[in-house]
Structure formats: structure tokens, C-alpha cells
Amino acid sequence: MHIKKYDTNFSRRRFMENTIKGIGAGGVLAPLWPLIANAEDTSKAYPDELLSIEMYTKGKVKPGDVITADNVEHVKDLLDPIAYKHVKEMGRRIHIVEPVKDVSRIFPTEYLEATLKNQGKAVIGKDGNVYTKSGEPWIGGTPFPEPKNGVEAQYNLTLSWGRHDYSQYAVRDWDIDSSGGLSYQYDFVWTELNTTARTDGTVWKGKKDLLRYQSVFFTAPNDSAGTSFLNIWDYDQRKFPELHGYIPAFRRVRQFPTNQRFEPLVPGITLFLSDAWAAGDPLQTWGNYKIIGRQPMLGAIGSRNFHGGYHDNWEKPVHGGPKDQTFFDTYMELVPECIVLEGEPTGYARAPVGKKRVWIDVRNQMYVAYVIYDRRGEIWKSFEPHYAMQDNDKMTRNDGAHPAWSWSSVHSHDIQSNRMSRFVQAKSVTGGYQSNYDPGDVDVFNKYLTVQAMQRLGG
Questions:
Q1: Which top-level group of life is the source organism from (predicted)?
Q2: Residues 120 and 225 in one domain
Q3: Is the torsion defined by CA of 263, 265, 271, 276 positive or negative?
Q4: What is the CATH number of the domain that holds 354?
Q5: Which of 7, 241, 341, 416 is deepest in the core (most CB within 10 A)?
Q6: For the whole model, what pTM was predicted?
Q7: How, if at all, do strands 94-96 and 228-234 pair?
Q8: What is the pLDDT of residues 345-390, one digit of tens each?
């Protein structure tokens, strides 16, 4: 039985108080993380109006409803400003579903286990980096499950992007122009290998001075196939990554300047390296982090967002926009509490970005919405993720002994040029590359994550 005497204003007052006081623990009626750590019912942390969209909207919206221009005002404060514009002005529809009640379904299993095992062991050193109390690089899981400030909240996103020690995403992308038509379609592969901050607690090949290797290479269409980029991240978050790129037209690898992180990877796409996981740049190359608020949000985090079994390649139906192909069908639910985080790119003198705003689910410390502003303070672009435990009534995709958890699709919308890139984590893409989290016997480092690999993949 949940307490029902608390109204919306009570929760808002408590969120405001926690923000002002710098209280890191999530929860309104009780601290959230102790409930998670003890495998208890996390709904005890919130009043009913934060657990039920029907109660929150006083009966105006309920699970099973579809948000359209006709009823979006009832949830306007639960959407980022660009998502609201999508529905209000561009014909987008958002399906409302029952919220996830089992918190273990919004983490990869090994990542949650590492978070529980290593709780309380993370500290920020004098150099601003995260270490264990014995001074070693971070040993896996979320370092700050109850972040007390913006830096801790951002580190939760930065140290392990996909929350797997290794990830390979086969990505199919469609780029929609301002008239609503398809201007480009790309296949690419995105690979991440953490050397530190690993869920298995090891340091990969002793490389404790590094955080990750990350590459992206395009496999289609033919005129872009072979275009590739390699990021090598220092563990020291004051340092800029080495950024290498291979452009087939020039048939050579070159090193790119740091400000290349705020530009499209290929023509027509709106994806920047800086966008990745709302943490695409080393943490200390940004600054002025601050938690500006806490609030409920609508987030796409449930299994309905995984389309495996419904489509051979896990692709999704589309709708909306001038030609009815701008948006994926998405399923959102009420997230009871999000941290609202802001930061500025202080280490990039010529960055076109003025600031970012990130909404982070306090339960798993993963972002559910992200927007950037230009240097004039105008909203520029959103990067909206859709996550899922990858099981449904048609199929289950496994990650070792457990169902896999990951992102399933993204809307990346440049609102100023009105260009939308929407992409899915597909089963496979041109070239036969498949999404996976276990490389098996494949030497993925030499195959995908070196300068020589970039040249070979591009050749």
C-alpha cells in the first residue's frame, strides 16, 4: 500500500530541497539506493503520483494511451523541449506504457553487480580523476550511485559508456532532411573497449593509463564505405583523446584536431563524437557542471523499444514529419526522478556548443534525454536515446547468461537546420558485421581499434 496523501507539489518541493542542499540520494519518501542495494521494492522511495502517469496527470494520460498534439500539454513538463516540439508541431506519436518496476531491468546484469560490489569505493583525486580509495583507476560499475554534485553525475556517464567492457554496435542510420525526405542512409559499426573501469575488475593488458579505445567505421553506401575514426582516451580526463581518421578519398590516416568532436562524422548525419552517451568528451575538457534540478520525466527505457523478433534486422516502424518517415515508434514510461545536469565545453575555445543539459535517471544513473545549446544560448540539437532489456514476446537476446541490456535506437535532431538522424542498433549491417558484447576468440583490438586497423578497414 503506497501513501497517497502526497501531491505533486510535495514531490516538487522535496526535489527542490534536495537540489539546493546537494543531497545525492534519490527518493522522496525514502533514500533510493539502499533499497536497490538490498533488493527491496524501490517504489517505497516515491509517492504514487511519481509511480503512475495516470495519477501524475490526474487521469488525463494512462498506460496504453498515445501522446499526440491533442494531449501533449498534459505531459509537457515530462519531455525535453525538442521532444515536445516533435509531438506538438511535427506529428510525432509517443506510446505510453507501464513503468519498469524491477530496477535490475535497467542495467546490464554484470554492471549492476559491479556497482553493488564497489559501492562507496570511489573518490575524486586532487587531479580531478576518479580512483579507488587505494589510488587505483576505477574498478567497475557506477562510481557514484548517489551523486552529490554535477561532476560525480557526469563521471557516472563518462567512465563506462555502454556499460559493457566491450561493445560492438552494428548501426543502421537514416538521415531526414528539412523537407522530411531521406537524404542519406548509412551503415556503420561502433566499437568500444574499456581498458579500465571494467565490470570484471581487471585492467585490460595492463593499460591503466587509458580509459577506452573507441572506433567507428562506415560500411555503406559505397562512396562512404571505409570512412573511419579512432578515439584513444587517456584515463586522465584532463587530456584530449587521440583522434585518428581515415578518409578513403585521401587513402591515408590523419590525426584530427580536438574541435572535430563537434562536427558531423559524414555528410548529412547529425551525430557528433561529442554526443556519445551524453559524455562524448573527457570530463575535465568540460566544466561548470551543476545539478540544476530534479524532476520526473518520460523516458524510453522498456522492452517494447527492442524490435528483435518483430523485424529480422531489429529495425523499427516510422511515422511523422512531412513525409511520414521522421520518427521511430517509441514507447515511453514515467521515470520517477531525474537529475537535471548542465555543463559547458570549457576546454574548447572554438566549440560551437555553449552548454549541454542532461536528464539522468537516478535509479541507474543513465541519461534519458540530452540537448545542446549554441553559443548564443539557443537550443541546437537533441540526442534522444531509447533503451531496452532486449527480450520481448518474440525473442530474447542474451549477454552471456543474462538477457542483454543496451540502447536500441536514437533520434538525433538538429532543430536549427531541421535535419533528423535516426538510427538503430541493428542485428547486422553491410559487410556482415553484427552487434555483440562478447568478442569470443576474435582479436578485436587489432581488428578494429588501431590506426593500422582503420587503414585496413578503409582499404
A1: Bacteria
A2: no
A3: negative
A4: 2.50.20.10
A5: 341
A6: 0.95
A7: unpaired
A8: 999 999 999 999 999 999 999 999 999 999 999 999 999 999 999 9
